Amino acid sequence: MKICSLASGSKGNCLYLEAGDTRLLVDAGLSLRETTARLTRSGIDPSSVHAVLVTHEHIDHIRSAGSFARRFKVPVVVSYATRQAAEGYLEKTELLEFETGYSFTFRDLLIDPFPVSHDCCDPVGFAVESREGRFGTATDLGTVTRLVREKLKGCRALNLESNHDPEMLLNGPYPWHLKQRIKSRQGHLSNQESLELLHEIAHDRLEALVMAHLSEANNHPDRVVETTASFLRDQNRCAPRITIGDQHQAGPVMEI
Hints:
Layout: E1 2-7, E2 14-19, E3 22-26, H1 32-41, E4 51-53, H2 59-62, H3 65-72, E5 76-79, H4 80-85, E6 95-98, E7 104-106, E8 109-115, E9 124-130, E10 133-138, H5 146-152, E11 157-161, H6 166-171, H7 176-183, H8 191-201, E12 208-212, H9 221-233, E13 241-244, E14 254-255
Parallel strand pairs: 3-4, 4-5, 5-6, 10-11, 11-12, 12-13
Antiparallel strand pairs: 1-2, 1-14, 2-3, 7-8, 8-9, 9-10
């Protein structure tokens, strides 16, 4: 299994996942040119990708989903509701629709799209099962539900939101209504909430962790490093390789 955070943040999100014989993009929120450039610089042939999975319709997640799919003749895998909301980005594109809450197979993978709490029509996280183990991703969620905890248990690799530091958000430049949105149950997870979730789902086979969707205005990589250092220090069940998702450049390709 390989994962690589190609971009992570409010200006664009894209994650590469290679599991079994299948290669996927989870979201495609960069331009087509930048997506292909970051894949290539990471040693990944863009034409080897088999599909684009879409979590929700916000532009920082779908900007080039349709154009990438058309360029490389691959499907966009999306829920019906999200397809309707993102229709302008997905014209003349092969679409594979799923129903949130119901697992489906794609090539040699079992993909489980589970609902998360965010201010859009049908947001999901994904749990992906392959012969190499389980991968989970959950970003753009304002609260951790029991279902989210269950779906992310047992993963060998995780892509997990760590959006903001509450103190930085409170004292930062955003208007009050936007601060309230970010803190709400339909907003984004704080560093502390991500840490609490990690402690709940940690297990001895967790080998790779991407801390994702950091706010440039309301967080700092050093704060997230502190979060992950605390996680590693305060439990002895696992010691995953950790990378902090970056908005401006791809992270390392982590192979497990």
